[in-house]
Write a structure and sequence with these properties.
Layout: E1 12-16, H1 26-39, E2 44-52, E3 61-65, H2 68-76, E4 80-81, H3 89-97, E5 104-112, H4 119-133, H5 140-175
Parallel strand pairs: 1-2, 2-5, 3-4
Antiparallel strand pairs: 3-5
Helix pairs in contact: 1-3, 4-5
Amino acid sequence: MQFTVPNSWTQWAFTTTKSAPVTGQEWKAADLVLDVARQLNAKEIIATEGVGSKEPGTSRGFFYSSTPEGKKKFEKLKVEGLGEGIIVGLTSAILLKAPGEGFNTSALFAETHSALPDSKAAAKIIELLDQYIGLKIDYKPLLKQAEAFEDKLHSIMDQAVKAKEMKEQKDTNYFG
């Protein structure tokens, strides 16, 4: 796979995981990310992840930074630090290995509310990246996509409930 990184972005290396789990391979994957970061002469590695939330109406973002400067910048942007939580997989391997290899690291986390793709969380990550490094990417279309997806999902769930009720009524009539 080939991709082009604008020259202004070469000071960062980005990582995100949400595909097949890399259980048992996270250390090797972290080594690959570090190799790419070295090739790009990256100054910072930024990981992005979703974190589960039980509050469906919210879409908050959190950060972790390995440096006081990064922490100060996120706090100035009014992004909450990740207080308590468990970070696993590739992100945890990068956060542990990268500082020892001379890379500053940050991680951005967005609240997610299901195991389904979460466009609101994706928009939150883009918004945080935009604030932090000035991506100049409009995340609002992702919010529109999220609303359309949620509407469709609610419609499907409503249809499933109605189908179940009809089946139960037929079963009751058969036995009653």
